[in-house]
Amino acid sequence: MVENNVDTTGYTLFWFHRLMIFYGLLFVVVEGLALLDLGVSPYAGDVFHETPLIIYFFHFVIDYAEIVFMMADALTAVALYLAVKDYNKTVFRKQKYALEAERYPLDCLELIRTPKEMYYIPLKVAMFYLLNPFTILSCVAKSTCGLNNAVIALFILCTVKGSSLMSAIFLALATYQSIYPLTLFAPALLYLLQRLYIPVNWQRSSFWLFTTQYTFMYLGSLCVMVCLSFFLLSSWDFLSSVYGFILSVPDLTPNIGLFWYFFAEMFEHFRLFFICVFQINVFFYTIPLSIKLKEHPIFLIFMQIAIISIFKSYPTVGDIALYMAFLPAWNHLYRFLRNIFLVSVVLLACSALFPVLWHLWIYAGSANSNFYYAITLLFNVAQILLVSDYFYAYLRREHHLTHGLYLKRKDGSEATLVLK
Amino acid sequence: MVPNLTNYLFLSEIMQAKAGQFFSSGHTNNWAVLVCTSRFWFNYRHVANTLSVYRSVKRLGIPDSHIVLMLADDMACNHRNPKPATVFSHKNMELNVYGDDVEVDYRGYEVTVENFLRVLTGRLPPSTPRSKRLLSDDHSNILIYLTGTHTQMECGYNELLFIIDTCQGASMYERFYSPNLMALASSQVGEDSLSHQPDLAIGVHLMDRYTFYLLEFLEDIHPASTANMNDLFKVCPKSQCVSTPGHRTDLFLRDSGNVLITDFFGSVRKVEITMETINLTAPMVHLAVERPVSELKTESQSYVDQLPVAEIIHQKPKQRDWHPPDGFILGLWTLILLVFFKTYGAKHLKHIF
Q1: Residue A380 near residue A351 (C-beta atoms within 8 A)
Q2: Which family does it belong to (chain A) (predicted)?
């Protein structure tokens, strides 16, 4: 690439955002469709790793691809808007019951959320998603990440509205696209149970009944989708190309994730072990978080989406945009956040440094992969810090709501809360 | 070249004279050896000279494969060059003669008298690549341009033009005795060849006078030009050059008034399109290949018809060959409808049916 000869901004923009979004790009889909036209399975070349339903979808809309991605982003924003609006109503209801039952200590009334401050939150959530540079990059790059985000946003909407069938179907669709939304099963279940006033008690039969219902719906839809995909292409190739690809990480193109560098220098002998370790790492946080946050499933959804986008095998900035959209919903936690300056500065700096170090590494040849991976690591550390900061703030607020705002030790002196 | 042509041409009596004219100049290919032998930054102008001649010669048609370019120092990437990757021949930096497509065959310390003589005589080690060899034959016209410094040719050539832009250049050509050689020099014995114009931004002289006026003259030459060597001898009189340019034509067989500039500076091929078949008599060998004229005409017409103009004008969208199986479409949309009605109730059914 000769930078001197680049005249069109479109060309430079293409290469810029190519740095942060490597997967699910449209030209890969076009290639898959072209291979199909030639009578060959699209998974024959090792480039196409999208699900057959995406093939079906794009078969019709490939000529209008930009509009499709823009509409997907708009759909995500609308779904998030409606979901957060409904969630705010739920929050109010709970708060009202708690106030009436006088469960809050008297000095933490300033922590109570008022309708006035929460009026604009749904709009802010939608705007955060639409105006996020990462979303715009993802849309310009025409990455199927936008479609995945739309499905997850619709899933969240259906969960918040309380429709368990639709929630199960969208969750199955999201899992079908990439395996990781499987971890969202637990928070969805918790929220639906909460909504139906079924307590999470292992001995209760109503709990088990609902759980099995939901599980059946989910697994049933997943099976239906997989079987439909089989009928689309009349082969089971897609299982190894899509899910095998996600789980066994054969492609080590540098991206903003953590896998590529590690596995590039891994000996074959240990590869399977470390793949298992890394993949378990993604799914592992579900159980402890669910136990801790079983009263707050929507926050759990936020944390799960964040963990998926940090630890998944092929992250893109579109995944980051989705959980960042939720941040205005936790505005009330602002007073308890400790690292916000550091996190925002590091995220900004790393986003700026990604293309610079990529250029230095690949084109100028004066850096090497360590530089780029350092920025990747830093970026992910900043994200983890962001998520854990919000977790701390949330738990701290809950603690204050039960134990009062000004904490005193047994001898009466002032105490501080530490997250252990 | 010539033998291939004879397979397909048949000469009639009327065409014989034309054919004689066609092959009059005697050469079929052109080579150029451009040498700059001076080193160091203050000899910038010699490199600019050579590169300007290189550029003119390429413009007039001689390809890189037929040019041996020898530059003794690297001005473009010299750390004293305020504009790296450029070599300017005119002040105010109007013309960058280095460009993107310069192919230097001998550079730096490879430019020696010994290598120059080896190139001209062809006595190079067998591992030398083709780009460093002068692969002329006895139908080649060779242009040799020397600048910067201060021999007998044994390489195969048809005609040779020697241009020397150095101090006391005439001393070089006074010693020549090879046949069919024409030489031009920028200065006589005892005179110095002077530089033309300094550039204040780069800080050195950009060109020598003789080459400057020579190149001004060459800029007016295009591949179809009929300027001859007498015009070249008039380039840079004493009033402009201060030194007296000289030339030597006694070893040259043809009259210099008949020699075209493009015979040496360009690679001009004579092409004549004829609709008639021409019989070439001996010594050219010919094969009996009949090609009736009418066949040619019909072929040309059918080619025109075969051009799919209508298709090109009306660009249709690509036809897609793959379609999803019907069972799949049926199953998918049935499921979607089922889910829709389950969620929103059967009361919407009446809106559909």
Answers
A1: no
A2: Belongs to the PIGU family.
Our CA dihedral for A258, A264, A269, A273, rounded to 10 degrees, sits at 10
Q: Quick: pLDDT tens for A141-170.
A: 888 899 999 999 999 999 999 889 999 999
The bridge status of strand B181-185 relative to strand B106-107 is unpaired
Q: How far apart are CA A195 and CA A260, in angstroms?
A: 41
The pair phi, psi for residue B306, each rounded to 5°, is -75, -15
At B79, the pLDDT band (50, 70, 90 cuts) reads confident
Answer yes or no: do B327 and A231 touch at CB < 8 A.
yes
| pLDDT value, residue A417 | 66
Q: Do A232 and B331 touch (CB under 8 A)?
A: no
ipTM rounded to 2 decimals: 0.74
- Mean pLDDT taken over chain A: 87
The DSSP code sequence of B103-171 is --SEEGGG--HHHHHHHHHT---TT--GGGS----TTEEEEEEEES------S--SEEEEEEESTTTHH
Highest-pLDDT range among A275-289, B3-17, B87-101, B240-254: A275-289
Residue A167 near residue A175 (C-beta atoms within 8 A)? no
DSSP-based three-state secondary structure for A134: helix
pLDDT at B200: 66
Number of continuous H segments (helices) and E segments (strands) in chain B: 13, 9
Residue A315: cis peptide before it, omega within 30 degrees of 0: no
Nearest CB among A38, A163, A232 relative to B343 is that of A163
H helix runs in chain B, sequence order:
2-8, 13-22, 44-59, 113-121, 170-174, 209-219, 229-233, 238-241, 262-265, 293-306, 309-313, 326-344, 349-352
Chain A, chain B: beta-carbon pairs less than 8 Å apart: 38
Cα–Cα distances in angstroms (integers) from residue A125 to residues A73, A76, B233, in the given order: 13, 11, 83
Contact B177, B154 (CB under 8 A): no
- A317-324 vs A121-131: helix crossing angle, rounded to 10: 170
Put simply, whether the predicted model's pTM sits higher than 0.90 gets the answer no
| Residue A144 CA neighbour count, 13 Å, CB half | 23
Place of tokens 């006033």: A197
Q: Of A29, A30, A31, A37, which to mutate for an interface test with B (greatest number of B Cβ within 10 Å)?
A: A37
Q: Which of A269, A160, A276, A165 is nearest to A221 (CA)?
A: A165
- pLDDT at B15 > cutoff 60: no
Q: How many CA atoms lie within 13 A of B327 on its CB side?
A: 8
Amino acid, res. A250: P
**Residue B338 in contact with partner chain A when CB distance is under 8 A:** no
Four-point Cα dihedral B260, B180, B53, B33, nearest 10: 140
Q: In this structure, what token pair is assigned to residue A155?
A: 């899933």
Which chain A residue has its CA at the smallest distance from B331's CA? A228
Angle at the Cα of A217 (from A213 to A221), degrees rounded to 5?
A: 170
* Nearest C-alpha neighbor of B7 from the set B277, B275, B272: B277
A54: nearest CA in chain B?
A: B324
